[in-house]
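Same chain as my last thread, 314 residues:
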Amino acid sequence: MAGSTSFDDITASNASLRRFLHGLPGVDQVGAEARAASLGTRSIKTTAKAYALDLAIRMVDLTTLEGQDTPGKVRALASKAMRPDPADLSCPQVAAVCVYPDMVGVAKETLGSSGVNVAAVATAFPSGRAALDIKLADTRDAVEAGADEIDMVIDRGAFLAGNYLQVFEEIVAVREACGDAHLKVIFETGELQTYDNVRRVSWLAMMAGGHFIKTSTGKVQPAATLPVTMIMLEAVRDFREATGQMIGVKPAGGIRTAKDAIKYLVTVNEVAGPDWLDPDWFRFGASTLLNDLLMQRTKMTTGRYSGPDYFTLD
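reply #2:
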């Protein structure tokens, strides 16, 4: 019943979690891929495309997660997040800048009161293989440095071994360590092997208190795909119907073009519904997507494409 379902009895043991998660409806692989492909062929009108491009820009978590990241690079990225197209002040800013925890302070200082959030990856990103106390310390350090959002990674080995309660309890503990920061739970769907596992881990993360469920770290291929994201959108839709709670979705990795982004927005609208067409409930984790969105936006405004080097290369 919406707004009143309790999962306390379900999460009391690994056996009860297993029964619940394996009792979820199975995913028809052929049907899911066919529906995702069909949604990906939808076209939108020119006026809707202008709106969709601006919405997609507002949904971007502009990301740099490299060992060679420097304070200067993070400052430049944060500046671009606030003013993606300096030649067009009507261009919206992005949702967040996503960095490693040691760069949170630099990003926070640069972004100031702009309204662009700072997201930090944590919990032994990207492997998720570390002791829980290390994961919690990683999270607390990022929050204390000013992170507004934490992108944690689950222990995929534990999940695939059927240790659902371990994964559940880690998410609960990280959520508590986040304090007021929002928690995005990364699945690394490219390692989960089946669509059934994607559905199961989506419910597991939502039941554990994640604010967002996220496909990938961007370090493993395949990363985000339209069928996987569609299954996650079905999960958040069904979870709201069961509990009254909305959970966000973030595909990350491999989304590089405005055309791809619009396919995802169409899928969001058709599967979860228009309530999710908002940066509070849907994000793109990306480093190169923003430039193509800006190029397409400029084309609609001026009638011509700018060169690929017109905008900064990140």
